[in-house]
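pipeline: protein-struct stage 2 | run 1193 | Prolyl 4-hydroxylase subunit alpha-3
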Amino acid sequence: RQTPRGPHVTLGLPCRFYEKVRALHQDASVDNPLLAFGLIKRLHSDWPNVVYSDEAAENAQAFQAGFKEVEQELPGAEDLDGAARALMRLQDVYALSVKGMANGIFQRAGTSCPPLYSPSRHVSLSADDCFHVGKVAYDTGDYYHSIAWLEEAASLFRLSYGSWNPEDRSSLEDALDHLAFSYFMAGNISHALSLSKEFLHYAGTPTRSCASAPGARWGWQERVPRSLIPALSPLSHPSWLCLSPQPTLEHLPHLSCSYETNDSPYLLLQPARKEVVQVRPYVALFHNFISDAEAETIKGLAGPWLQRSVVASGEKQQKAEYRISKSAWLKDTADPVVRALEQRIAAVTGLDLRPPYAEYLQVVNYGLGGHYEPHFDHATSRKSPLYRMKSGNRIATVMIYLSAVEAGGSTAFIYANISVPVVKNAALFWWNLRRNGDGDEDTLHAGCPVLAGDKWVANKWIHEHGQEFRRPCSTDPQD
């Protein structure tokens, strides 16, 4: 985005209005989750507030015409609320304090440990930003998060009370009103009453008219049954694994690194560099599995087709809050790079990837706070959509890291108690099924939220049919 140019846009504007417009033209980098949230909020609400303000009257036609040209491409309310939920997810999983996040510091609450992520450019959230995050939680009855974010919003509004910022959609009165009700729903009645008194003090001042005071929650003391008050709890996620460092081979001597040919002529001249991450369940990391150029090609092929990822739900597939990402599917005929990658996967795994023994390559992009809560790759019910391929269950997974991330994004195996960080251009492999055909419960895994950066992966799911002589059953029925 460039600064508006031309006399039809800038001449005659008051200096203050021009400064507000210029302030909206900030760095569009989305590596920092706070910058990403700020960008989405500016595009969704701050820009319309400026474009349609009274101060823009002289240039309203030019501004509004230009804005309407791109309005459909800008983030919507769903995008903004999703960005707010992403900040709450990062708060929970990485044990971050809300005050620290608002000040641009990504440090675990109550510790003196170094920050998990130190952005090159310092950025902080405004009182209105914090209010919006808290309001998203409030509207869904998530008072655990609404209290923390509305507290920070109220604190920041108190510091600037009396100053006029027309771009803000909220105020100190709004924050106090929602915060009082949140505390009431949390069971802290005395503090709720204290905040209500503070609200009445500010709402009765000349700086705010009676018509604009929220007041929608007055009478909640009598209207809300105590039995409806929900328990406060953070989001469920394997945060201990997302925060834990990867163990080294010195501490786990049974693990190993090796050059592997897997008896494949394809790997004779350039063996695969394999690191065994875990023996049970068997998890291996193949380093330098893909080149930078190949990774960029695959991302470019998938980019135009990315859509919100879905999950299996009974016999259907649908969107879910526990999987936040965008994905696309690529056939091996899409490009020679995809075909060569599939040949490489077949060589290192020793499995048959010919249709219908494997699914198309799935390319996934995890952006701001993108994550996937604990799940199995294999189907746990015969009614799962996975069986529509009529090639059995998913016997193995190959997940290729197409990009690096600055912080977060690890793959955490819950029951195995291991966490594999993002290693650019590496491929992570594990067996989903035991040799007897049963699902391996130790493969329960999660994609930790992306704290900073842009995570791209490519998944190849291989099915059990066609592998009978490549991974035969064991003589031990329990294996």
